[in-house]
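User: Structure tokens for this complex, please. No commentary.
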Amino acid sequence: MIITKAGRRMFPSVRVKVKGLDPGKQYYVAMDVVPMDSKRYRYVYHSSQWMVARNTDHSYITPRFYVHPDSPCSGETWMKQIISFDRVKLTNNEMDDKGQIILQSMHKYKPRVHVMEQDSRVNLSRIQSLPSEGVKTFSFKETEFTTVTAYQNQQITKLKIDRNPFAKGFRDPGRNKGILEGILETYPWKPSVPLDFKTFGTDTQSGSGGSSPVTSSGGAPSPLNSLLSPPC
Amino acid sequence: MIITKAGRRMFPSVRVKVKGLDPGKQYYVAMDVVPMDSKRYRYVYHSSQWMVARNTDHSYITPRFYVHPDSPCSGETWMKQIISFDRVKLTNNEMDDKGQIILQSMHKYKPRVHVMEQDSRVNLSRIQSLPSEGVKTFSFKETEFTTVTAYQNQQITKLKIDRNPFAKGFRDPGRNKGILEGILETYPWKPSVPLDFKTFGTDTQSGSGGSSPVTSSGGAPSPLNSLLSPPC
DNA sequence: TACTTTTCACCTAGGTGCGAAGAT
DNA sequence: ATCTTCGCACCTAGGTGAAAAGTA
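Assistant:
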């Protein structure tokens, strides 16, 4: 994943579905990115793989949280939409003052998604760490990535150019779809099983099914629903 | 002010400063637009003024609220920034389902700003009207406007073209600044006295001073301040 | 006649990878 | 030698009033 001083969006972005929430309760949904290890990597071109370049980077920085802009929002609303973190920005600037997620280049990371009830009456702007109760954390092996300041691999570059609308200007219209393209179009980008607030605990990986059918109840819409417009 | 089926931003937009809030408490800030009367107007070009065209339009629609996207937010944060409603959109489509503010063309309106404490434990998505306590409402004569689907007055058109960045393409670079331009540049667009949550009651006009100096206290910034990023 | 709707060129605002230049 | 930064052309996304066409 590209990181820059000014901050760069992730592509593809983290997108999840959630179930098992109480439709009437209010929740915050947030994301952070944690290191897989403390190793620095380098990409070996001729063998097309990442190798350990150096070990033990010190200076562990407490990860920053990105709170989903729809927060806080009712369980009902969270559950009926895809929750997309497409505005998260990654930076390598340790002095960043724009609340962006700070990472080191040439390292491996894993995004996490947190779902927390609002009514655990902690003032989110004052606590030092995530509350230990009323929070569920999810992550997926499929979303692990390596940070770079410039792409190391032609296939990744092509993937981004072909899939990211903002890179359309670099697309090569003359060429037929290659092997990679074929793989991409059938690849299951994300598990079809929604995050289950009731079933999973902290830092659990998904993949197998959860239970807890979604009770898609519905408080009657009121004239003032627009108070939280767009519907939230 | 232009209104369209798809929704049109206001220009200039409503912008306020607030003081007298409890820095530690959480507040919602919202805006709505209420009719000045139930009259329909027409613009008489040769006398350059709006005349009553017809009286008593029935079908009073409950105004929609636009909640400022930073809501909820601490009093401390609200008070240290200009609160801008530049993303509000006005529409003449009574069937609008995007939460936009619905108005009738050729009528006169007045924007209002509401500041309310969060802890009045009403679920905002379920109540039928604004709570009667813990809410302060402000409005300003300077912000009254008449709705149109096309400008009726060349001076207004020129004003918008000259001041709205998105209308830059229509600017006439050859012409010197006219009389209107001169007036505009010295006009006090908004009162310099911030809204005082403690002093004013419901639907009060500003203009004279309020008391209540702002105690710009400051809870020490915590690592998790970014939980509400951008700073809020 | 008196408004409203639609389409359009022309903007602002900002997200891409490229390639040259910079840094260590 | 290896990684990072910066300016750039080229996009997406969407906010303007003009002018033509629509409505009643």
